[in-house]
Specification:
This protein folds into two domains: about 70 residues; about 100 residues, Immunoglobulin-like (Sandwich), CATH 2.60.40. The chain is about 25% helix and about 30% strand. It contains four helices and ten strands. The protein starts with 5 loop residues before the first helix and ends with a strand. Bound molecules: copper (II) ion (CU). Copper (II) ion (CU) binds next to loops.
């Protein structure tokens, strides 16, 4: 108790502080990537080519769907403001097996918009792009490695939600802002 008086206490506390800080920092980043990496890392192990290879690929794809169907609670990355070039505002969104659109916040001006969806993943589920409330303004299901586009006239100024129609529950959503 006497050691806790102000004068000696300050001396003893100095070396104690640095220890817990780095320990916590080491644990935090290690836990996150571990489950994500373990699944894809095993995919290429299948040696067989041809029928067996295809069977493995299908099994892997199905497994991948199930293991990754958990909600992605990570941040929605990126913002972009489109500009009119040759009468159209080009917006390119990439997606992969992480249930995200990049960028996920898209700002456009009134007029024609072209949304291009590039599935840059190496496998897994296809994705589409749908502007909620405007079913015609949608990019159809796009497989890994594919690129598909849709052109439409921006709706009235405001804020709209867009989604991948088959991965809404996994959190694959974004925001379209139409400027006045
Ligand atoms: Cu999707």
């Amino acid at each position: 108790m006497t050691g806790r008086t102000i004068a000696p206490g300050t001396v003893h506390q100095v070396p104690a502080r640095p220890t817990p800080a780095p320990a916590a920092a080491v644990f935090a980043p290690q836990r996150r990537p571990a489950p994500v990496r373990s699944a894809p890392a095993r995919l290429p192990l299948g040696r067989a080519v041809g029928i067996t290879g295809a069977a493995v690929a299908v099994a892997v794809a199905l497994t991948g769907c199930q293991t990754q169907s958990a909600i992605n609670r990570g941040p929605h990355p990126g913002t972009v403001t489109a500009s009119l070039v040759n009468g159209v505002q080009d917006v390119v969104l990439t997606t992969d097996q992480r249930y995200r659109f990049t960028p996920s916040t898209v700002t456009v001006h009134p007029g024609k918009v072209r949304i291009t969806l590039k599935h840059v993943g190496t496998g897994g589920a296809p994705h589409d792009w749908q502007l909620q409330g405007f079913p015609a303004d949608s990019v159809p299901l796009t497989q890994a490695g594919q690129t598909r586009s849709i052109e439409f006239i921006a709706p009235a100024p405001g804020t709209y939600k867009f989604v991948c129609s088959i991965h809404v529950t996994q959190g694959q959503t974004g925001t379209l802002v139409v400027l006045p």
